Amino acid sequence: MDFSVVNKMLFEGSIGQEGGFLHNIELFAVTLLAALPLGLIIAFGSMSKFKPLKLFTKSIVWIIRGTPLMLQLFIVFYGPGLVFGTPLFVGAEGRMKAAAVAFIINYACYFSEIYRGGIESIPKGQYEAGQVLGMTKAQTFFRVVLLQVIKNIVAPMSNEFMTLIKDTSLARVIAVVDIIMVAESFSAKGIIWPLFYTGLYFLIFCGALTIIFNKIEKKLSYFKS
Amino acid sequence: MAILEVKDLTKSFGKTEVLKGISLSLEEGQVMSVIGSSGSGKTTLLRCINFLETADSGLITVDGDVIFDGNDKKKRKAKETREKQLKIGLVFQQFNLFPQYNVLDNVTLAVKLKAKDRPDYKQNRKQILKEIDEKALRILDDMGLSEKINNYPCELSGGQQQRVSIARAMALEPKILFFDEPTSALDPELTGEILRVIRELAAKKMTMVIVTHEMTFAKEVSDYIVFMDDGVIAEEGKAEDVINNPKTERLQAFLSKISD
Q1: Could you tell me the end-to-end alpha-carbon distance of chain A, in angstroms, rounded to an integer?
Q2: Residue A68: enclosing H or E segment and its boundaries?
Q3: Structure ipTM
Q4: I need a surface site. Which of A55, A190, B221, B256 has the fewest CB within 10 A?
Q5: Which string of b and e fits B61-77 if b means at least 16 CB within 10 Å?
Q6: Is B89 contained in some domain?
Q7: Model confidence over A125-154: pLDDT tens digits?
């Protein structure tokens, strides 16, 4: 089979098997878009002074981080059907939605812990300085604390981003057509190299992420916390 | 009339009584030093006056305005607290500068945020911001920092950082400026420059309250010295009297320990 044909199919799938690496990228982008803000909300919940909320949030984070993402994919996809009698996620689009829900919840919990660490590492004196200078709590957070938090979490975040793009392949357990699933359809026909070749896609993607994160890190290196 | 008046201030952390009824008053333009061994409650006193801790009971008045009343249990609005907060300034032991801002922005940030509340802010925005910058530059010049305005805190020595934090507090034009052991985090050879700045402020009749371990400096720069011991004011009086002729045994013991 022609290399460029295989390459095209790995990237965007084929008729009857739409998807490929585009699905990996879609899942990556959708997860980040929703999980980055959701993670911040969870982080504030787990730092709350209101004990029940704190306990509730921490339990959720414990459960999500303590069980395999693959299992969570199954639960999100099959769960609604078992509980309500009719499946919530139907067809290729439904499978993608189910995968997105599972990924968003899972990654938001991991992000929340990164945010929490970043926020708690800011010395109390920064908040006190904001207060004695007559700044509001919101001003102190957005004008003083936030950029220091971002600087602190760049490195752990870059780790999570890289894990995420590779994790997107897991969605194939609920039959979301991703690049590895396409590649496997080739090996079923006796052509094995496309399966190994998919690694290159992930390598290049992670390489680009590394470059972007290095740039951010460099941009924030002008000050020390 | 006294510009600062504190009456029967008490504060406990759990079962530990840190302030056991502190009363003091300070006239405008005067400098008061608060001395005492660590654990005597002097930093807690400072933090209570500056709203960083809430005292349990007592009364604090600044410039005729009650900023804390232990009998008034209803919660004050955040905005009101901020306005009262701005009557007093605080210089921290650990500077607490904002690392991501350069020297000039550290000094102007809070002033510029506060200026947004002015009714004429929208029309005169440029003019107002320009005036704030100019004033900050004058203050920084007084502190001998005009060459460092574009530097970031991590590029400065401890003494320079502390001078920036004094400038930052001064930019808000507080009625009283408090110092929490302003030289304790500095190398000995750097304490001189901070003491010089404080001396200059005293000469300009800035009202100041200084918590310090620098006995000779306290004696030289202050009008009044308060010696705290175990949560109470054990002795107070004119600076020379307190240092040269301590009356209580506790102060005598403290001073002889310091001079060793």
Answers
A1: 56
A2: none
A3: 0.91
A4: A190
A5: bbbeeebbebeeeeeee
A6: no
A7: 999 999 999 999 899 999 999 999 999 999
Q: Using one digit for the tens of pLDDT, what is the confidence trace for B134-151?
A: 999 999 998 888 999 999
**CATH number reported for the structural domain that contains residue A33 in this entry:** 1.10.3720.10
Q: How many domains does chain A have?
A: 1
Range of the domain at B50: 1-77+209-260
Chain centre distance of CA B169: 9
User: Is residue B217, in this structure, part of any structural domain at all?
Assistant: yes
Q: Is A13 helix (H, G, I), strand (E, B) or coil?
A: strand
B-chain CB neighbours of A128 within 8 Å are: 52, 92, 96
Average pLDDT over residues A185-214: 91
Residue A63 structural domain = 3-219
Task: Please count the structural domains in chain B.
Answer: 1
Task: Report how far apart, in Å, the C-alpha atoms of A50 and of each of A95, A128, A136, A193 are.
Answer: 37, 22, 21, 56
Asked whether residue A225 is assigned to any structural domain, the reply reads no
Report yes or no on A224 lying in a domain: no
Confirm whether A207 is domain-assigned. Answer: yes
Residue B126 is predicted with a pLDDT of 87
In a domain, residue B226? The reply is yes
Q: What is the mean pLDDT of chain B?
A: 88
A165 located within any domain: yes
Contact B86 A134 (CB under 8 A): yes
Burial class (CB in 10 A: 0-12, 13-18, 19+), B123: exposed
Q: Would you place residue A199 in the very low, low, confident or very high pLDDT band (cuts 50, 70, 90)? A: very high
Contacts of residue A204, Cβ cutoff 8 Å, sequence gap at least 6: none
Q: At A166, which amino acid appears?
A: K
Residue B249 lies in a domain: yes
What distances in angstroms separate CA A95 from CA A43, A92, A102, B150, one per listed residue? 28, 5, 11, 54
